[in-house]
Amino acid sequence: MILCASASPRENKRILYSLAPISLASWRDGWTMNTKVHEAPGLPIHPSVVYLIALLIGVGLDYLWPISLPAGRWGGVLGVVLIVLGVALMPPVLRRFRRAGTPFNAHKPTSALITDGPYRFSRNPAYVALTLWYLGIGLLLRNAWVLLLALPVLLFMDHWVIRREEHHLQAQFGDAYARYQAAVRRWL
Question: Which one, out of 17, 26, 64, 125, has a CA that is 20 to 30 A from the CA of 5?
Fold first, then answer.
């Protein structure tokens, strides 16, 4: 949509809010979401991109200053196991979204609270799967930088992504989400 002189001020304001999901006030307050303006969490970056950027930085750092993990097949075997676990976790997650009729895309509004399947054990099983993939790839590459960057990635995900999503879900689902939050851990 484009701002238009013939559109009402209310319509132009709605268009501007849709183009700017993060207000300066939200940024100043730690990226908390203003749910009166946004229907979706308004994430600063797609969660999978966070992992991809960290992986590329780790590979780049390893090229400049190599820190290899000790040789041996156990790191590679563990890497494959982590990747397989992450891959196995995703179909049940995606099935739950499809059954609930709510989008999997973190940038779109949620229409249902999913609490069954993998969501009985973790409020964020898709992020657990991404983390398993990330760690598995780091082990397969024998890249210590990738593994060292896992901590900043998890901190970023926890503070800048998951908390925004939780704020959004609390505003949308109220007590139902608060009960779910009290019963199920954020990660594992």
Answer: 26
CA 58/CA 148 separation, integer angstroms = 8
Interhelix angle 175-183/163-173, rounded to 10 degrees, is: 130
User: Is there a contact between 136 and 81 (Cβ–Cβ < 8 Å)?
Assistant: yes
Question: Has residue 16 been placed in a domain?
Answer: no
Residue 26 belongs to a domain? no
Q: Which two tokens stand for residue 66?
A: 């190599």
Contacts of residue 141, Cβ cutoff 8 Å, sequence gap at least 6:
59, 62
- Using CA atoms of 113, 117, 123, 129 in order, give the dihedral in degrees to the nearest 10: -130
pTM given for the model: 0.77
Which residue type does 136 have? Answer: G
Q: How many independent structural domains does the chain possess?
A: 1
In a domain, 171, yes or no: yes
Tokens of 114: 């999913």
pLDDT, tens only, 135-176: 999 999 999 999 999 999 999 999 999 998 999 999 999 999
In a domain, 155, yes or no: yes
Range of the domain at 66: 41-183
Q: How far is CA 46 from the centre of its chain?
A: 7
Numbers of helices and strands, H then E, in the chain: 9, 0
- Please state, in angstroms and rounded to a whole number, the distance separating the CA atoms of residues 153 and 157: 6
